Amino acid sequence: MGRPPVLPVDKKLGLVIRVMSGELTAAEAAREAGVSEQSVSNWRRQFIEGGRNGLAGDGGRHTEEASRMAELAQENAMLKTTIGELYMELRKYGRSTAVRPPQRREGTRPGRLVN
To answer: 59: part of which helix (H) or strand (E)?
Structure first.
C-alpha cells in the first residue's frame, strides 16, 4: 500500500474522537479518510499519549522545544550574516594591491626562523 494522503490535524482529531466515542470503528474511519486502519490506530494512540503527557506535567515541553528551536534559528541567521560579511571583507582585501599574502623566501624551510 502506498503512502497515505496527508490529512489536516483537525480531520484526524475528529475521526479519533468519533472512534473513541464508539460512533465509528477504526475500519470505518479509515475508509472515510482514505487511509489504512493502522493509521487510524496510530492517531488514536498518539492522541492518548499526548493527553497522558499533558496530565503528567509534560505539556510545556513542546513549547520549550519550540522556543529553543526559534532561538537556534535566530542564532543561525546571525552567524550566516556574519560569515557573509567576513566573506565580503576577504574578497575586498583579496583584490586590493595594498595587502598581499606573505611571500615565501627562497632558501628557507617551513618552520625555521630567519633572522
So the answer is: none
